[in-house]
Amino acid sequence: MRLKLSTVALLLICNLAASAMASQLNISDIAAEGLEGWREHSFKGNTQYQAIELNGTPMISARSDGSASGLYKEIRVDLQETPYLNWRWQIEQPLSGLDEQSKGGDDYSARVYVIMQGGLLPWRTRALNYVWSSGQPAGSDWPNAYTDRAHMIAVRSASDNPRQLYSERRNVREDFQRYFGTPVRYIDVIAIMTDTDNSGRQAHAYYGDIFFSR
Length: 214
Known about the structure:
This protein is α+β, with helices and mostly antiparallel strands. The chain has helices spanning 2-22, 30-33, 172-180; strands spanning 24-26, 39-44, 48-54, 57-65, 68-78, 84-91, 108-116, 126-132, 141-143, 150-156, 166-171, 186-195, 202-213.
């Protein structure tokens, strides 16, 4: 009887472990992989990205000096299975005095965004930008200054401690429904970007622990 109970207990533990693994989709293992698997897209110049340790925590460092390029991964995520995007981030300083709702002020010390691609119908492409805002309060949102196919969501603001590492969690499935009014099951790309091309300023941010979960 003890043997049978032990066997059952072992099977339960294995099933729970497998279920836990299935309930989380890692986007990047910075400690083991560095920037492997990430690709860079430049809009103007190149933000300097590198894998580092920040107080012992593996992170991606991003330095922008009047530049705008992002790191992205093409990965299909089923939001029905893992709707929550999780990440950690920190900035060195906010970008003050910008009108982020204008093209001239569309710069961010840190942003994490997800993209639903439209395939052969590019006008159906939609993107959510989770940003560390300089001029808007946390919790606010607005259309991207360049396109109505992207929406900006202020997760942090200038009132947050710029040198503190914050952990975030967003229900991407609900956010697509809320801000675009359409149900989305799959997203195809996740990206990070620190950009200051419009203002010509400098910014430094850190990103880490990016994954999707139930």
